């Protein structure tokens, strides 16, 4: 069996008529949704403490004190949950030459004209951007977050450092919310994507249209012998 | 006259409190600023600004102020180990709102040994960094007489006030998860009594009254100190935070840091200003714009849909068992 270049263990052609392709295993999907739920809780509780006009969101968690207590714990959960996702996904998110071509045709991407775009592996440059932006921002958020975690680390850093930490935490939080919006919107706008994270499969047409190298590799592997 | 119940605030801490029944002031109508409440209604009246003056040159370090503070506020500071310093407790704590800090200073000009004792505690800034940083509506308020007070039932214990304060004053209790600091005895001032520390001070190093009276008194004290050879005597009422309602007379006003690191030019850190100013406003605007933009893009443009042709190609590919990468495409 040839070495995988554009796919990861678990990715396979699930049925041939019509073609459906398995994209994410159950454990990866669970991992994704734990991360997503944590991020949403963090977003709501964090925004509540970020702007007075959103303080009412503390009501979702049972008040300001509970929100203040809950937010950092969910942050730790998100960090470890994302770490597991990171370990599964980082290799296929490394930049490749075709990403440059894809980015230079970004206008066509946005118009949905994919004919002139290069064939892509499991992820396009936009997905890779979301992946690396999330990775970097989560690292920044956990480090700056621990520095301002009053309940358990009140004296970890000096007050001047703490001021920078709280500013950086706020800026990184805004950036990750923007990345989150981009991620969710792209998944909705590119029809047929969300089922990859719900049912775990995509249609053959979706794979052909958006991630042809990935599909080719999987099709080639299917031909090599009995199913794995 | 000093305890006239018709006055809006006590004019001294020394005399006994009024005995006539009187309405407590410092109600909601006296709040000029409240944390995380940008649209606060204006106060219904203006109280006379008050101030506590701490004349460091008169202080004998007896700690009567600390005792009076703990007694009035009903706090029980932890009994600690003696580590060879006069400071006790070691620092401000959630149970110790004021602290005598002792510095030993050898004056290079005179060769004299000087014991510089400063009563540390909340300065009640006109521009309070704690209030600016606080995310909880109504947890920190500023009254029109200048007192900055923590309203504990609204406090969420996040510690942002610690981040915002230029003087390192607020302390968060690990038991109640609420922030504490000197209240300038707002509960006493509201009923015509001066702060407990000023009342207890045996040398009147701590005095209380209107800010105007206290400034006049401070100037007279500076004059007196200068006549005794303290050429650099002066008032510490830092304008970087808009002036303070607790202020000092210092014999070395040119070097406030001699007094246990009293900040030279305190102000709300520009980092805190940036966090609570442009980041908060632009950040929320960017998030809102991105959310609305995506919805509009979704409504006004065609989504990227997989065609029947794509599905056919996929079936052909899977049936033909094509190699992973066709020759010639790898260069991309």
Structural summary, described in words:
The complex is a heterodimer of chains A (228) and B (332). With 228 residues, chain A is mostly helical. Helices cover 62% and strands 5% of the residues of chain A. Chain A contains 9 helices and 3 strands. In chain A, helix 1 runs antiparallel to helix 2 and helix 5 runs antiparallel to helix 6. The longest helix of chain A is centred in the last third of the chain and has 31 residues, at 159-189. Chain A starts with 11 loop residues before the first strand and ends in a 5-residue tail after the last helix. The relative contact order of chain A is 0.16. Chain B contains 8 helices and 11 strands. Chain B is elongated, with a radius of gyration of 29 Å. In chain B, 42% of the residues are buried. In chain B, the strands form 4 sheets. A 4-stranded mixed β-sheet of chain B has the order 9-2-11-10. In chain B, strands 1-5-6 form a 3-stranded antiparallel β-sheet, with no helix packed on it. In chain B, strands 3-4 form a two-stranded antiparallel ribbon. Residues 327-332 of chain B have low confidence and may be disordered. By secondary structure, chain B is α+β, with helices and mostly antiparallel strands. Chain B has 2 domains: 28-268, 2-Layer Sandwich (Alpha-Beta Plaits), CATH 3.30.70.20; 276-320, no CATH class. Helices cover 27% and strands 15% of the residues of chain B. Classes of the chains: A mainly alpha (228), B alpha+beta (332). Chain B: Keywords: 4Fe-4S, Cell membrane, Electron transport, Iron, Iron-sulfur, Membrane, Metal-binding, Oxidoreductase, Repeat, Transmembrane, Transport. Chain B: Residues 307-322 have a biased composition (Basic and acidic residues). Chain B: Its cofactor is [4Fe-4S] cluster. Chain B: This is Formate dehydrogenase (Quinone-dependent) iron-sulfur subunit. Chain B: One of its GO terms (cellular component) is plasma membrane.
């Amino acid at each position: 069996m040839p070495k995988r270049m554009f796919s990861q263990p678990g990715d396979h052609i699930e049925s041939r008529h019509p073609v459906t392709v398995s994209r994410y295993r159950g454990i990866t999907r669970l991992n994704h949704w734990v991360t997503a739920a944590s991020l949403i809780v963090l977003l709501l509780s964090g925004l509540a403490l970020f702007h007075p006009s959103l303080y009412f969101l503390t009501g979702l968690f049972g008040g300001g004190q509970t929100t203040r207590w809950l937010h950092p714990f969910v942050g730790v959960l998100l960090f470890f949950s994302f770490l597991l996702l990171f370990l599964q996904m980082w290799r296929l998110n490394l930049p490749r030459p075709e990403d440059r071509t894809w980015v230079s045709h970004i206008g066509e991407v946005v118009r949905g004209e994919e004919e002139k775009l290069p064939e892509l592996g499991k992820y396009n440059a936009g997905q890779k951007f979301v992946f690396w932006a999330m990775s970097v921002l989560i690292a920044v958020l956990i480090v700056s977050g621990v520095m301002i975690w009053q309940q358990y680390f009140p004296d970890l850093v000096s007050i001047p450092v703490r001021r920078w930490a709280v500013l950086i935490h706020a800026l990184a939080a805004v950036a990750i919310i923007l990345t989150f919006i981009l991620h969710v919107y792209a998944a909705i706008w590119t029809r047929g994507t969300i089922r990859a994270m719900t049912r775990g499969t995509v249609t053959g047409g979706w794979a052909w249209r958006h991630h042809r190298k990935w599909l080719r590799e999987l099709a080639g592997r299917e031909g090599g012998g009995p199913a794995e | 006259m000093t305890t006239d119940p018709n006055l809006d605030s006590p004019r001294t801490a020394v005399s006994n409190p009024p005995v006539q029944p009187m309405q407590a002031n410092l109600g909601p109508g006296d709040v000029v600023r409240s944390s995380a409440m940008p649209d606060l209604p204006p106060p219904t009246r203006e109280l006379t600004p008050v101030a506590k003056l701490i004349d460091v040159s008169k202080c004998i370090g007896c700690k009567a102020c600390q005792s009076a503070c703990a007694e009035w506020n009903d706090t029980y500071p932890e009994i600690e180990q003696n580590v060879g310093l006069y400071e006790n407790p070691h620092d401000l704590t959630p149970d110790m709102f004021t602290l005598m800090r002792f510095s030993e200073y050898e004056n290079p000009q005179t060769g004299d040994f000087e014991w510089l004792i400063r009563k540390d505690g909340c300065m009640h800034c006109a521009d309070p960094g704690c209030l600016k940083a606080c995310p909880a509506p109504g947890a920190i308020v500023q009254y029109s007489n200048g007192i900055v007070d923590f309203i504990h039932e609204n406090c969420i214990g996040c510690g942002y006030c610690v981040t915002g304060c230029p003087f390192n004053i607020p302390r968060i209790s690990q038991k109640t998860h609420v922030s504490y600091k000197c209240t300038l005895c707002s509960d006493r001032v509201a009923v015509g009594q001066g702060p407990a520390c000023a009342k207890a001070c045996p040398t009147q190093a701590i005095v209380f009254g209107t800010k105007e009276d206290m400034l006049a008194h401070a100037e007279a004290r500076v004059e007196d100190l200068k006549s005794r050879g303290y050429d650099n005597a002066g008032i510490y009422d830092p304008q970087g935070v808009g002036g303070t309602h607790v202020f000092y007379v210092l014999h070395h006003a040119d070097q406030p840091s001699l007094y246990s690191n009293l900040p030279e030019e305190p102000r709300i850190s520009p980092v805190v200003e940036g966090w609570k100013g442009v980041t908060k406003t632009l950040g929320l605007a960017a998030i809102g714009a991105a959310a609305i933009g995506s919805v509009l893009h979704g409504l006004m443009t065609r989504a990227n849909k997989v065609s029947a042709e794509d599905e056919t190609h996929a079936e052909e590919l899977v049936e033909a068992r094509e190699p992973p990468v066709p020759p010639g495409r790898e260069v991309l």
